[in-house]
Amino acid sequence: MRISLNPGVSLSLISTKQFKTTRIAVDLITPLKSESLTKRLLLAGILENSSQKYPSQKILSEELARMYGAGFGVSTERKGNIHALSFNLECVNEHFLNTNSQLLEQGINFLKEIIFKPLLDGNRFDPKTFERQKEVLADYIGSVKDDRQLFATLELNNAFFEDDGQALPSFGDVESLARITNEELYKYYVECINNDQVEIIISGDVTVEKAKKIAASLNFSDRYPEKVPLFYVQPLQTQVKERVHHLEISQAKLNLGYSLPVYFQENKYYAALIFNDLFGGQPLSKLFVNVREKASLAYYASSSYDSFRGFLSVKTGIEAKNKDKVLQIVNQQLEELRNENFTEKEVETAKRSLINSYLSQLDHQGVLLSRALFNGLLNKELQENEWIEKIKSVTTADIAAVAGKAHLEAVSFLDGEVKNENN
Amino acid sequence: MKIIDYPNFEEKVYQEVLPNGLIVNLVPKVGFHKTYASFTVNYGSVDSTFTSLDDNKIMNRPDGVAHFLEHKLFEKPDYDAFELFGQLGADSNAFTSYTKTSYLFSTVENVRKCLDTLLDFVQFPYFTKESVEKEKGIITQEIMMYNDDYNWRLYSGIVENLYPHSPLSKDIAGTVESIQNISSKDLYDCYQTFYQPSNMDLFVVGAINPNEVIRWVEENQSKKQFPSAPQIMHSKTMINDKYDIIPHRTLRVDTSRPKVAVGIRGNIELPAGKMGLKYKIALNIGMYLLMGESSEAYNKLYNEGLIDDSFDYDISVGRGYHFCVISGETSNAEKLIMKVMELLKTANEAIGGQRAEFILAKKEFIGRQIQSMNSLEGIANRHEGKLFDGALSFDAVKILEELEMKDILQAVGEFIEPDNISVYQVLPKEDVD
């Protein structure tokens, strides 16, 4: 259930007794801009670790412990053309505890302190916290290359996307981080608080009246945020862009990026989900079976589909010398899907598997929260049955047609040798 | 069926031991869509060495054989279990740890068929020379992938330091060399030795009716005959020699930030049954008070720039071993190691002075246990079987409520000894020019 509290501020409530916890998410949403990628992430670090009332990590953690180990985090998410700064709190329903504490009330008061009363020094954040969080973020960005799989994924992303906001990693880059000043960051945060679209989502054993009261107590002012299309659409590229890196690595990584211009919940979306499932979305897919099982060429080979950006990516871990062979097998699988070279039984299995995971996710409170957010942003709510019916009605021809839309546009490849590493 | 009621959490656990010795635990979860089942053998990577009681001989198998067996069990002459689960609408998977191998599925439909599939494929061994040879290529790739993961290298490096000359020092998947020696005969031998119903347990949690499920399981099992298994004894301890810890090693790789691990090996024998769980929880609270996120020490190290969010401690408890790994990325490995060593040296004084923090820690741990009851996987996977006398996360809350500061001090005091500490570092290569 989604309720508009005041202009630009909405509440979604998922009332359920299924869980032993209550969750609250406060999402501040704005159109994605490349220059604010790093700013938002730095804000998340600062706000997660300090506030005026809880000036140190120790004091803040103790407050969470007092609320029976409430889970708390501030994070950012890039989805299509929007960018969210999210405050999340999870606390135990006191019904299951020997206590008189009102944990939900305590939790919302805690969130209020965090969001509206950051640890300040005049018109900037506490300089020590600011500098330390900047350092932490710089260290993280600097060490990304150490995670080879992640690095291969980021490089593919960078080669594939034309728009900077999409091409850069979700954490931005060191150059823009270095440029951010404390005063500027605080000014930016005040703008977020005053102008961003606000989505408050609550899940748990909570009545509508109580949820409304809690959400209203956050007291977000009226706002009229800029509306942008939710989906990122990029014109087809004619040339395949390639990135190659030589690193010390025992297993080479080959990642492929395809444009697949089919978007979330539109007509062909359900066929695209099944296509991805048949192609490389799970361990029974063509990629896994043919690259790993039949050809023994890789430990992993899988695909994933981003329906907010019309983007299909394939990742594999292989021996470097097999690069061309793997590329050829991957393309061959796509070709087979285009030519309807798959059985009714495979489609049936894919449909079952998608329905299984859709329903299974209803057992995860965190997933319910993010589903509610995207339904809210799209301003439509799909019922479970509707979703299942749409999956069931997809035909073989629909799947082949979607496969025909996938178009290879970027390749990232990491290889190299490991030598004399022991001391 | 035995029913254990936990009215505070509105949960019930149904337990049965079948005539063939298989232990069954069933936990219905109201409001859930999914059912999760795990079928676990008390057999893991460390059991490449065991004693045959028939002739009292110590048996050795190639490292990585338990994991190899896990991979191969899915493949049958006329079907692949993985595909069969897929056709039923279920996800399936398996994992091997030091002392356990688990086979699992999760599904929203066809629970009975899935259960039969799970029990049948695990209880019907079938290995051929050809398929064993082919698997070697796949597992080699898996080992190589882990080889590139420096956090994994850090962890296995410190465990190797703590337990040299023991099977714990070997990678769960074995090595590229050791798996070349695995034959289908090895797989059959290990299977017959360990995959006996009395050495296994079944855990089913989710959208189930326990009375119905137990009937299904009984029907399935009553149709099967199990050959009498050779009598064996698991290795009792992973410690060969009290003084054999490797104190310090360094690995240099192409990484940008130093990674440090300090390991502590528990030299005492783990208390039996539920007392073992109490000991594990006490150690966890002890470490939390000493260097958890809300400790004085953590905050100092963080603000000095010596640690970041990657800093953590992990207590690992299993059959024949328990140890703690404190690890993180740092800008100054040497200094961080020194600080952690100092903390460990005066651990008991530092912990004992934190009466107020202890009360808060108990609250936090209780809350987290209750949070974990939201997860079907969490409920099933936290079950350690015989190790903790069948204890579940529901039991942990009671243990926590009764825990006193003296329990923490006793556990930590017994655990940390100067001779039991080791350091492993993964450092960037030095410039050679």
From TrEMBL, chain B:
Pfam families from the entry?
Answer: Peptidase_M16, Peptidase_M16_C
| GO MF term set | metal ion binding
Residue span(s) of domain Peptidase M16 N-terminal: 63-175
Q: Which residues form the Peptidase M16 C-terminal domain?
A: 181-347
Give the matching SUPFAM superfamilies: LuxS/MPP-like metallohydrolase
Return the protein name: Peptidase
Species whose genome carries this gene? Liquorilactobacillus mali
